[in-house]
Amino acid sequence: MRNYLLLFVFIGLIKTSIGFSQDVNIKIGVKDSIQSKILNENRQLIINIPRDYETSTKTYPVLYVLDGNVSGLLDAIEATHELGAEFIIVAIPNTDRDRDMMPISTPTYTVENPEAKKFLSFIGDELIPYIEKNYRSNDKRTIRGRSLSGLFVMYAFLEKPELFDNYIGNSAGWYADMNYYFGPLTDKAFKNKDQFIGKTLFIANSLNDPFDPKKEVHNGILEFSNKVKSELGERLSYKYVTYDNYGHVPFPSFYDGLKFVLTNEK
Asked: What are the record keywords, sorted (predicted)?
């Protein structure tokens, strides 16, 4: 069942010496859900549709937003609006973030039950078919993740690159003690070079990230970037961006990533 999700905004208005307030209701999306057999749980969704969706017969690309709480959805709405882009936005709230986003557990990031493989299967085998059956999509798919879900975006890119056309990872990458897993995963994925033809991958990190004081993640992505360039060449559109003046999940990184995706689609 779909229900409208309203964002309640409290606006304080001051005129001369008299203060008063007003509640303003803004519709930001539709609440939806899917019962997952793979995850054995009901997964909530928040769907934002283009303004003219109800009055047109057009089809639209779909932007899947991990860490899809209300703030994550608002980030996506703001970025698409600023770029003048029309997407069906599917925000996926977390139920167990560590479990779903991590394929492994290491001393740097210990997870009791890492099941990113299951979560990726849920996205590919259940969520995407559900969205494409019930919403007017044009089969163009973009996924965006930040921080831990940015790591998941990179995992998805290497494990099942066919699922999405575009991958945006903000504050994305892995620590040095995860190289034993992601190194061979990268080498295995890059053996089938043609599966990356036409894909777009945008990764962004901060050089002042408090979660990466030793630059392990940044240096790992530099090494990964060299592999992308040497192994895949022009088969895909790839960009790694760093920011000096932001902390974890640099503020402009979603906008910059989506702009890169849109530029490469023209």
From this structure: Hydrolase
